[in-house]
């Protein structure tokens, strides 16, 4: 069973920083691409950043140059370092991974962690 557990959210002033963590279990972590998504109230869930099994990264235009996604395969953990935070970054942030296990596809999400940026 795939399990993703996020942590690190909180309340921060504009211009501040936070680091989110997502601990994964139930998968061969090093083989999976990992993604961070966010969902603001009344809006759809959007991709923020993704990191492949090989370490390649991709970011939403709105966070490029401010956020950094990284992974520690020894700890089965993916991180999202968020700098120069803006009020519009306020959302619930979710960790995600997809794959196939025993011929069955999965698309797993964590419970989410709230990030609130005050102006």
In short:
The chain is mainly β and 119 residues long.
Q: Would you write up a description of this structure?
A:
- The structure is a single chain.
- This protein has 119 residues and is mostly beta strands.
- It is built from no helices and 11 strands.
- It has strands spanning 3-7, 10-13, 18-25, 34-39, 46-51, 57-59, 67-72, 77-82, 91-101, 104-109, 113-118.
- Strand 4 (34-39) and strand 5 (46-51) form a beta hairpin.
**Unreliable runs:** none
Shape: globular
**Could you describe the largest sheet, including whether it forms a barrel?**
7 strands, mixed
Mean pLDDT: 97
- Tally of helical segments: 0
* Rg value: 14 Å
Strand content: over 45%
**Distance between termini?**
40 Å
Structural class: mainly beta
State the helical fraction: under 10%
- Structure summary, number of beta strands: 11
Secondary-structure element pattern, one letter each:
EEEEEEEEEEE
């Amino acid at each position: 069973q795939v399990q993703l557990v996020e942590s690190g959210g909180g309340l921060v002033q504009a211009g501040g920083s936070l680091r989110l963590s997502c601990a994964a279990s139930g998968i061969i972590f090093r083989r999976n691409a990992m993604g961070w998504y966010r969902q603001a109230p009344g809006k759809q869930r959007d991709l923020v950043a993704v990191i492949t099994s090989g370490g390649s990264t991709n970011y939403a235009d709105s966070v490029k140059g401010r956020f950094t996604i990284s992974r520690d395969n020894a700890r089965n953990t993916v991180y999202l370092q968020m700098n120069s935070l803006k009020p519009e970054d306020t959302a619930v942030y979710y960790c995600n991974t997809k794959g196939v296990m025993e011929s069955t596809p999965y698309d797993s999400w964590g419970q989410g962690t709230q990030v609130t940026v005050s102006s």
